[in-house]
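User: I'm writing a tutorial on reading structure tokens. Could you give me a worked example: one chain, its sequence, then its tokens, then a sentence or two explaining what the tokens reveal?
Assistant: Sure. Here is the example chain.
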Amino acid sequence: MEQKDQEDDRVARDRIRYQWMLDSVSKFRLLFVGLVFAILSFSVQFSDPTANRGAKGCQLVAWILLLSTGMLSLREAGGFVAMNTEIVFDGLSPARRRLMWWCFLLAIVLLAGARFLSDWAT
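And here are its predicted structure tokens:
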């Protein structure tokens, strides 16, 4: 009887821990969505007014990549579902998740490159 109680306690602890991990993942996904759209909005609002076409092109491509990353991250966080009655949503496939992260990284590098190009040209 005591062993059954210990097993029930372990199962309950594991269930609570698993729910806590799922909540943490969900919070991180929502944080990332907010981060991506905040970076996009600030980079558009405070874009570098330059005559350098390379810097303008870098900014434009970075904005498009950030928008794509934002849409993918919204999907990853559970938005844009086909049916609201889905039992479980696992997020993006690993390939799309990698694409999302690479688009984000490339957009950040392009935004930094646009700043460098605009400062270098003047």
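What the tokens reveal: The chain has a mean pLDDT of 84. Helices lie at 2-45, 53-76, 94-121.
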